[in-house]
Amino acid sequence: MHRFANPARFLRLASVIQPWTAAVTLLLIGAGLYFGLLVSPADYQQGETVRIMYVHVPAAWVAMAAYSCMAGASAVGLIWKHPLADLIAKSASPIGASFTFLCLVTGSLWGKPMWGTWWAWDARLTSMLILFFLYLGHMALLNAFDDPGRGMKAAAILALAGFVNVPVIKFSVDWWNTLHQPASVTRLGMPKIDPSMLLPLLLMGVGFTMFFVTVLLLRVRLEVLAAKIRAIRLTQIHGMPGADPSGEALG
Amino acid sequence: MTSEQAFSTFTAEGLVCVRGERVVFTRLDLSLASGEAMFLLGPNGSGKSSLLRVLAGLLKPAAGRLTWNHQALAEDREGHAARIHYVGHHDAIKPVLSVMENLRFWGRLHDPLAGDAAVKAALERFGLWHLRQVPGKLLSAGQKRRLNLARLLAAPASLWLLDEPSVALDKASVKTLEAVIAEHRANGGMVILSTHADVSLPGATELHLDRFTPTTPPEFWA
Amino acid sequence: MSRLSEIIRRDLRLALRQGSDSVMVVTFFVLTVVLFPFGLGPETNLLERTSAGVLWVTALLASMLSLDRLFLADYEDGSLELLALTPTALELLVIGKVVAHWLTTGLPLMVAAPVLAVLLHMHADGFGTLLLTMLLGTPTLSLIGAMGAALVLGARRGGVLLSLLVLPLYVPVLILGVGAIDAAVQGLPADGLLLMLGGFLLGALPLAPWAAAAALRQALE
Fold it and tell me: Most buried among B137, B215, C60, C195, using CB within 10 Å?
């Protein structure tokens, strides 16, 4: 099985791709910020604060996409025992958690002018909050074992269980929200979308995604190198056979 | 033991075992036929326990395959489980259940048709029948180990995988174990065990695990 | 199937003889619910309005109390290895252990809930639905909890970690359970919500034991 996963090839490939994704990230986010902050119009209701949307909404997209990526990699790792897939799942989760956190913080910043409060139990924000807890659980489980392999396998099962649960959570939170939310509170999210707003939103969305890919590649490379170092240490500790000729029949 | 077991063979081919990120042994082959016994020998860390767990199906080998009568076992985990008894380092005895209850549970779980007669015979054989009402928490280490070994007789299985079965046993109990294993082999059973050199099994083969320790660093991360 | 009943009987016998977590779980449930009037004030209206939520949140926490022990004892004394080597699907044995866990924690919680509902002045129309939601919801808690308990076997700080893993997954049960009771109290039909709660249970019934069994096999490797 290890034959199919070639970290050396991955390292070569990643080091070729990564400068490009980094450049595209800078370009897209730069353009997105330019169009979002300078070119696009202010909302007639929300004024300038609507520009928070250009960070908030793409962050939510990437946060959810990262969870799907993590669950997909976990499934591959569980089914085909592909060690790189495990490392991808492990590396994706802190990045996804960061985007979720960014989404929550910008949501809170946006909520203050819109609702007059830092936090409202808006359906989307609440779902993102639970997603954040799912990420936290995943990261905690990953690091809870002395054997890193065991942590990755347990976390993979958790990621899949969480992935199955996310739609149920989303649905129940939406239902709960319509039940309790006073109608006067506007939901966060996209107002009636104008093309001049759509362009920066999409630019930022793709830019954030490329940023995710860049950081993911970087983290996976580091994980591969760390695994190499551990392998070298292990051979140092246990030594190569032949060095210890006292092969007694003791156990 | 029922003696209806036909002649069977159990083989392992090219087993590779990885624990954590360390390769414990590579390209290990072994084969065993009805009536045979095998000692696993090797220094600490050479993978005796790991090999027994691989053979039991608790641990998936990183490579290689197991066969029973030339049929690959990977697809038939439950069928394999029905054929084996595994005795590990822990005795799996519940402190609040009596000796009888402990053994009866494992017997029935292994084979729902196993009757109390087999449980009684197993307890008598290992000298525990007079303790049958005693809760597990009052047993000594040696008695616990004997109760664990009594599982071998409480429900039938062809292949016994014993990890240091003689730990905590006195001389008389080791003799009982040797006799039980001899009968099992006479009935066409197989035994693989790792142990200190205090169990004697006439005609048993030896497998030196240190011969299979990898000679190169693990190729994957290298 | 006889193996399933074998393991249920063993776990029930163990729970009975070990002085059982049931008493602890119910005591925690009662005690925590009783704290709420001190925190919120004894106003009948307020307590009545919050009763469904208080009962369900507390029941969630109480049902988690005994979870970390679900597989831990078997893991530590070597029983889990032998269970995994039983000639049957490990998933089936997990279901057996979940059934035993529910009988020793979920069921007592269900019995205690109406009594506590009286203390919280729950509206009379809510009692039937309360019992139904507990009947449909607590088995789901045991199922999801079993998965969490299997995942944290051998982990550092398993108990705290378990709550972090399991509580977010409990959210739908909480929302649907409380929603159904509130609907019933307001004279609205609760059938749809109860059906969804039942659907969640039916979904968890195959998936959670599968995940738990996979996690147990990992833990034993």
Answer: C60
Residue A98 lies in a domain: yes
CATH at A81: 1.20.120
What would the pLDDT profile of A35-92 be if each residue is shown by its tens digit?
Answer: 988 888 887 777 788 888 899 999 999 999 999 999 999 999 998 888 889 999 999 9
Q: Which domain holds residue C148?
A: 2-220
Give the whole-angstrom CA distance, residue C47 versus residue C34.
11
Q: Is the CB of A164 inside 8 Å of chain C's CB atoms?
A: yes
What does the pLDDT look like over C113-126, one tens digit per residue? 999 999 999 999 99
CB atoms within 10 A of CB A43: 16
Tell me how long chain B is: 222
Q: Which residues of B touch C10 (CB under 8 A)?
A: 94, 97, 105
Longest dimension (CA), chain B: 59
Give how far B59 is from chain C: nearest CA, Å.
5
pLDDT at C144 over 90: yes
- Residue A36: count other Cβ atoms within 10 Å of its Cβ: 24
Which residues of B make CB contacts under 8 Å with A?
Answer: 20-22, 40-46, 48-49, 62-63, 164, 194-197, 208, 210, 213-215, 217-222
C-beta atoms surrounding C202 within 10 Å:
12
Question: Does residue B67 sit in helix, strand or coil?
Answer: strand
Question: Is A75 an interface residue toward C (CB < 8 Å)?
Answer: no
Question: How buried is B72 (Cβ within 10 angstroms: 0-12 exposed, 13-18 middle, 19+ buried)?
Answer: exposed
Q: What does the buried/exposed string (b/e) look like for C48-60 if buried means 16 or more CB atoms within 10 Å of the residue's CB?
A: bbbbbbbbbbbbb
Residue showing tokens 């400068």: A19
- Judged by CB atoms closer than 8 Å, whether chains meet at C77 and B91 is answered as yes
Q: Number of helices (H) and strands (E) in chain A: give both, helices first.
A: 6, 0
Q: What are the structural domains of chain B?
A: 9-212 (3.40.50.300)
Note whether A149 contacts B20, CB cutoff 8 Å.
yes
E-only strand ranges, chain C = none
- For A1, A4, A61, A84, the CA distances from B220, given in Å and listed in that order, are 10, 10, 35, 11
ipTM of the complex model: 0.91
Interface test mutation site (partner C, options B109, B110, B139, B147, max chain C beta carbons within 10 A):
B109
Average model confidence (pLDDT) for chain C? 93
Q: How far apart are CA B44 and CA B74, in angstroms?
A: 28
Residue A18 lies inside a defined structural domain of this protein: yes
Residue C180 and residue C129 in contact, taking contact as beta carbons nearer than 8 Å: yes
Phi-psi region of B162 (alpha: psi -120 to 50; beta: other; left: phi over 0): beta
A246 backbone dihedrals φ, ψ, rounded to 5°: -80, 65
* Number of folded domains that form chain A: 1
Average pLDDT on C71-98 reads 93
Query: What is the number of structural domains in chain C?
Result: 1
Residue B1: band (very low, low, confident or very high) from pLDDT cuts 50, 70, 90: very low
**Taken in order A143, A147, A151, A154, is the CA torsion positive or negative?**
negative
- What is the Cα–Cα distance from A60 to C158, expressed in whole angstroms? 30
Tell me which residue range forms the domain holding A120.
14-181+196-224
Encoded tokens for C209 = 């034991």
Angstrom distances, CA of residue B89 to CA of B18, B52, B93, B198, C77: 20, 11, 12, 17, 9
Report the range out of B60-69, C52-61, C150-159 with the highest average pLDDT. Answer: C52-61
- The pLDDT of residue A103 is 95
Residue A241 maps to a domain: no
